[in-house]
Design a protein that fits this description.
The complex is a heterodimer of chains A (about 350) and B (about 270). Chain A has about 350 residues and is of the alpha/beta class. Chain A is about 35% helix and about 15% strand. The longest helix of chain B is centred in the first third of the chain and has 34 residues, at about 60-90. The chains are: A alpha/beta (about 350), B mainly alpha (about 270). The interface of A and B includes residues 21, 41, 45, 71 and 79 of A.
């Protein structure tokens, strides 16, 4: 799950204001004032943690869990930047983890208190946004492919590549995420390149491809693309697997999700400790709890996303484990990549993106 | 419609009808779908009260309704008192800086909500004030005072000062005069202001999203976070209830704002 454009717009304003007032460089997180209270305040995406899992934690430990829900990564940034929000755990996406670390808004994890960390698949650890997982624990992950309307592909068969998004026959029936890196990832993968390529020639070619694609695109949208697809207004909608799966689950005979064979973007949401987290004993009790294979499987069975927890797979419902939209086969996953910081090439990409959008 | 009516009237009616349809059809559909038997948002499958029943057993959603009611009630009481006092000061006294005070008072309505929200959260941050339900109440009072002041001032514009002078002449103390003469006369304006504030507070999203802290999720915040994973009929049901409550309060406010009918001298 990623930013909702609307929320992002006004939260950006807050960030600017707060940044102007923040008092320069912060020290690394201050020491804990003590073990804290038997309380836990969570700030998490909507429908990301089943109530029964929370209830059992409360039964087992006597720790009262309070949680508030958010709808965009920017909400997490805004709350943590305010410096006066009492959250003990937050669940930002990969790129937001990078920003939060950069702004020194997170507290390093004490891995010695989390033996269950070993349950996690190393393929999802030590990523570019948090080298060595000093601050973040993978919670759920997914891919950015596209959703499609099965009624429109009866003649051509189910798509398995990015090709339909560049096919003039689908003019006016394509929706792309309004997101520079995600759009470039589509073009680069379609060209057989890494989505983190920094080669100026390759980026130029990808930009040209996106330019030729633009007349085919009905709209660029990152807010409610899945509903536009579900309403039948487009045949193909580029987007995150979770949101597409939600609408596809309502009409499985009409809607489907494709992880193109050329590969795609990987995204991951991660549990992190805000710098001001206080109820430290409760935090580590909760983290150990959700890393337990059986508990994590119950979470996954309730929310239908993929986890990086290897032993949890034994307890996950087969219909989730065997759904290629949630757990793609390893062969497809090998071609997927997380979005990395591409350094100076970002500027070039920005320039091309403006060119494409202004065309 | 009688056939003798000029054709223009027919077009005018049609136009009016279309405008109202444009304004209210989406809301009517939302209300209708809160009674829909299926959770698919686009197909009608028959009437049910199932979603209202589910809503009533949804503790999380009801908790946010409770938060919204607490904030609405607290903000209404506080801002009505403060706003009325401000309106009285501005409406009946000439003092230095009166114009500036009036402009400052109306500013929170003119400033974009985003700016108010960002400013408040920055202020709370600098002051070291932990975000909670209390910060939401304070934020709502900030923008609500202006609405009360405007409505009450409008009521004061035709106020006959000689009534108060008469009371004072007859030996009433200033406090007695206020509670027995002034307040009853401006009461419709005060109540209308209060109702207006309550309706604005209960559906505020932008400012609230900035200043809400632990356990302070209000109903609009909850609905918005639910929208990301698809509109459920439960959201339609709770929106319908909110809509009904708001409409009733607005109608009440409008009634109270109308000038009182002339009473025959007794």
């Amino acid at each position: 799950m990623r930013a909702s454009a609307r929320a992002a717009a006004f939260l950006a304003a807050a960030v600017v204001c707060l940044a102007a007032l923040s008092c320069g460089e912060r020290a690394d997180a201050p020491p804990y004032p003590g073990p804290g209270e038997k309380k836990l305040n969570l700030y998490i995406w909507s429908e990301y943690l089943p109530q029964e899992v929370i209830d059992e934690f409360a039964r087992r430990t006597g720790i009262a869990v309070r949680y508030d829900l958010y709808d965009s990564n920017e909400s997490v940034l805004e709350k943590l930047q305010s410096g006066v929000a009492d959250y003990d755990l937050v669940v930002p996406s990969d790129y937001m983890v990078r920003i939060l670390i950069y702004l020194k808004l997170l507290r390093p994890l004490d891995r010695s208190r989390l033996p269950a960390f070993a349950n996690l698949d190393p393929r999802f650890l030590d990523q570019d946004f948090d080298p060595g997982n000093r601050y973040s624990i993978p919670y759920v992950w997914g891919t950015t492919g596209f959703g499609y309307d099965k009624r429109q592909t009866t003649r051509t068969g189910a798509p398995d590549s990015w090709a339909p998004l560049f096919d003039p026959a689908n003019k006016g029936q394509i929706l792309m995420l309004d997101d520079m890196r995600e759009c470039f990832a589509v073009a680069l993968k379609h060209m057989g390149q890494s989505l983190n390529s920094t080669d100026p020639k390759v980026l130029r070619a990808a930009a040209d491809l996106l330019k030729t694609q633009k007349p085919l695109v009905k709209t660029y949208n990152s807010g409610d693309y899945e509903n536009i697809l579900a309403a039948g207004d487009v045949w193909f909608a580029h987007g995150y697997n979770g949101q597409i799966a939600k609408v596809a689950a309502r009409e499985p005979q009409r809607l489907g999700y494709v992880l193109p064979k050329e590969g795609a973007t990987l995204w991951m949401d991660n549990v992190c400790l805000p710098r001001g987290a206080r109820n430290v004993a409760s935090i580590y009790a909760f983290l150990s709890y959700i890393l337990e294979p059986e508990v994590d499987a119950r979470i996954i069975n309730g929310i239908s996303y993929a986890t990086a927890n290897v032993p949890a797979k034994k307890f996950i419902k087969p219909e989730i484990l065997n759904d290629p939209a949630i757990y793609p086969p390893d062969s497809a996953l090998e071609k997927c990549e997380f979005i990395k910081d591409i350094g100076d090439a970002t500027e070039l990409m920005d320039e091309y993106w403006t060119e494409i959008k202004a065309q | 419609m009688s056939s003798g009516r000029p054709r223009r009237a027919v077009w005018l009616r049609l136009h009016t009808l279309l405008v109202f349809l444009f304004l209210y059809a989406p809301i009517a559909i939302l209300v209708a779908f809160s009674f829909n038997q299926t959770s698919q948002t686009a197909v009608w499958r028959g009437f049910t009260l199932e979603w209202y029943r589910k809503l009533l057993s949804n503790d999380v959603l009801l908790g946010t309704v409770r938060n919204s009611l607490i904030v609405g009630a607290a903000a209404t009481v506080l801002s009505t008192v403060l706003g009325t006092l401000a309106a009285l000061a501005l409406g009946r006294h000439r003092f230095r800086g009166e114009g500036a005070t009036r402009s400052l008072l109306y500013l929170p309505i003119i400033i974009p909500e985003v700016v108010v929200g960002a400013a408040l959260v920055t202020f709370f941050g600098v002051a070291g004030f932990r975000l909670s339900l209390l910060t939401v109440v304070i934020a709502h009072v900030v923008f609500s005072i202006s609405y009360v002041a405007i409505v009450v001032r409008a009521r004061l514009s035709g106020f006959d000062r000689s009534l108060e002078e008469a009371a004072l002449d007859l030996g009433a103390r200033p406090v007695q005069t206020f509670f027995r003469v002034t307040l009853p006369l401006i009461l419709p304006g005060v109540v209308a202001g209060a109702l207006l504030v309550f309706t604005i507070s209960i559906d505020d999203y932008v400012i609230t999203s900035f200043v809400a802290g632990v356990g302070a999720t209000t109903l609009p915040l909850q609905i918005y976070s639910m929208l990301k994973v698809g509109v459920t009929p439960e959201v339609n049901a709770v929106s319908t209830l909110l809509l009904a409550a708001t409409v009733v309060l607005i109608l009440l406010a409008q009634r109270l704002q109308q000038p009182p009918p002339e009473r025959p001298e007794g």
